[in-house]
Description:
Layout: E1 2-6, H1 11-22, E2 31-37, H2 42-47, E3 51-54, H3 67-76, E4 80-84, H4 85-98, E5 103-107, H5 115-124, E6 130-133, H6 136-146, E7 153-155, H7 171-177, E8 185-190, H8 200-210, E9 217-222, H9 228-237, E10 243-246, H10 251-256, E11 260-263, H11 272-279, E12 284-287, E13 303-305, H12 310-322, H13 324-341, H14 344-375
Parallel strand pairs: 1-2, 1-4, 2-3, 4-5, 5-6, 6-7, 8-9, 8-11, 9-10, 11-12, 12-13
Helix pairs in contact: 4-5, 8-12, 11-13
Amino acid sequence: MQxxxxxxxxxxxxxxxxxxxxxxxxxxxxxxxxxxxxxxxQPMLEAAGVQTFVLDRRSRWQTYxxxxxARLMRRQRVHILHTHxxxxxxxxxxxxxxxxxxxxxxxxxWSSKSQREVWVDRLLYRLSDRILVPSEASKRMxxxxxxxxxxxxxxxxxxxxxxxxxxxxxRAETRSELGISDGTQxxxxxxxxxxxxxxxxxxxxxxxxxxxxxxxxRLVIVGDGxxxxxxxxxxxxxxxxxxxxxxxxxxxRLLNAMDVFVxxxxxxxxxxxxxxxxxxxxxxxxxxxxxxxxxxxxGTTGLLVPPNDEEALHQALRRLxxxxxxxxxxxxxxxxxxxxxxxxxxMVQNVEHLYEKLAQRKIGKEISIARxxxxx
Length: 376
């Protein structure tokens, strides 16, 4: 059972859905439990035959809606419970133990936590057989901040779908839909516009400065969030005609309409957006935070800049617009790097290997008997 709060459009939910859809069905009978609401991915899960349970919990205080979850796990005879994000990691570990689930895995996806979350995770880590983190940087953070020992942690990188994120031929059509004329140099970013990521205001200012030398440059911001209205005000104050697309389901198309991709975040665990941009062969500029340097080798597969540094961001963008050979070299090397190390197939393979290792240790005999019965 894969468990989360909402099967929505975030990176953590995307990783959950990728696992639910791609785990080997000859070895795993997969279900998904959303403790709050179904979200946008439920039709996709159900169309693939993945049973989805929705508890419809409206707030953290509605704990009574979780009462039946332990019963559900027993009824489904769950051998492996894989929880995602803080809420589900918390209740999943507690109720999974009460239900007698043999293997419990908690999956961290955050780059920073509140003090309350730190204390809760510190208390509960012994209830999980392994805690997954998306990067070595996240692993170090968990060890240092929460005091969780190395033996309990396991790094599994997220991955992208090579078939979905690849160079496309509808670039001109997409740019026309966005109102972008020929000859425009499009700088773009993708992500939630929220305080925990931050940095987009600096990107707007950096592009405004860049346009003094490159008036044909234009910024496209894909995504939505609580900071959007304030960012639109920043753009208006600077006289910048920034395109805010809002939340989109065709991110691959939009990436193919760009010339340069930027991730200006102040905090990141392991940004899937960078992988997607590199996969469509875009040169990338990103801040040196969290797990970003584990993907981007500065000067080889992309350019790294310090976080919260408008001038460094401006200079990196200027390099890519004025040095097309450098931009092309970074784009090609970046795509090759992602295709070799950060695909969904690689991620699923690593998760299955961990499942098998933990299952054989704790329920190996039961699984062997079940498989023998199936063969007969």
